[in-house]
Amino acid sequence: MGGLRGGHSRYSSFMAHGGSHHHHHHHGPTEAGDDESTRRIGWAFWLNLGFACFELVGGFYIQSLAVISDALHDFGDALSLGMGYFLQRKSKQGPTETFSYGFRRLSLLSALLTGLVISGGAIFVVWESLTRFNEPHSPHAPGMMVFAVIGIAVNGFAAWKLGRGHSHSHNEKMIRWHLLEDVMGWVAVLIGAIGILLFGWTWLDPFLAIAISLFVLYNISRGFTQTISLFLQANPNPPALRQFRDKVLALNGVKDVHDVHFWSLDGVRHVLSMHLVLKEVETAPQLKEQIRKLSQELGDCHVTIEIESPQEHCHNDCEHGQAESGGI
Q1: Second label for 8, Cα 20 to 30 Å away, from 129, 141, 225, 252?
Q2: What distance, in Å, lies between the first and last C-alpha atoms of the chain?
Q3: CA 82 to CA 90: how far, in whole Å?
Q4: What is the helix (H) or strand (E) element at residue 263, kind and residue range?
Q5: Quick one: DSSP state of residue 254?
Q6: Is the dihedral of CA 127, 133, 137, 141 positive or negative?
Q7: What does the pLDDT look like over 234-256, one tens digit per residue?
Q8: pTM as predicted
Q9: Which value, to the nearest 10 degrees, does the dihedral of the CA atoms of residues 30, 31, 32, 34 take?
Q10: What gap in Å lies between CA 46 and CA 83, rounded to an integer?
Q11: Rounded to an integer, what distance in angstroms lies between the CA atom of residue 3 and that of residue 8?
Q12: Phi, psi angle pair for 207, to nearest 5°
């Protein structure tokens, strides 16, 4: 992220005024939120795995191939949730010599993989449902209703559990969509079972499955696109960063600010760095403290500030690339 430029003498003079080029926030409440988030994902995993086992046993008991097939699908969901739980736990580990920012980006990796699983599952359901229109069959409606009610209750409770609290990682949001997809799928099964039982509408089951799958794909695509963007270290909030830079430039004693970089570790915790050109280097400690307070408007940030004097030439080439690409 860069240190102080311009030689040892200016660095020593600056440090004599009690300054520091780097600042790292320690967040006790944030760590507590991490533990809560991990517990919520763990709840979702065990509920999903337990229901998949129940569904598999019940499917063999009532000799329903449809229920057995859905049980295997739920085992796949449980595997995805288990992966999300493991990566979320791993992401809480602190920095190492190799991974200086720790493992928080594993949370984004989990969100990315979960998005792929959800999208693949929804596309598979659409394909299977289209073939059902050509090969209609009459499933066991009462058995469908029983499993649908239990499925709505279990997955609905898991989604509600995952939605509690105030801080949600991107991984957690994607997993919640995974559970809501299952809830809506079981709602479709319940409505289809009622339609089949009362009116013999066998087409209702594949029709609702397609409608819900398309709805899930539409909604998940936005979160999935954002996950890819954050994974590629895109600016998580361009308007807020523009306002932040304007406020920094308006501070008394600041001549210029450039080479501003703002990216996110996991969608919740961000990294912010900048080069600050001061009219007088001696004012750095006070100005940096003001800038750190302003950075709180961007969220939970790891802030690095490099101080430069007006006579100093910045040799960093990143600023030129930012100007060409329309960045800050």
Answers
A1: 252
A2: 17
A3: 12
A4: strand 254-264
A5: E
A6: positive
A7: 999 999 999 999 999 999 999 99
A8: 0.64
A9: 90
A10: 12
A11: 11
A12: -65, -50
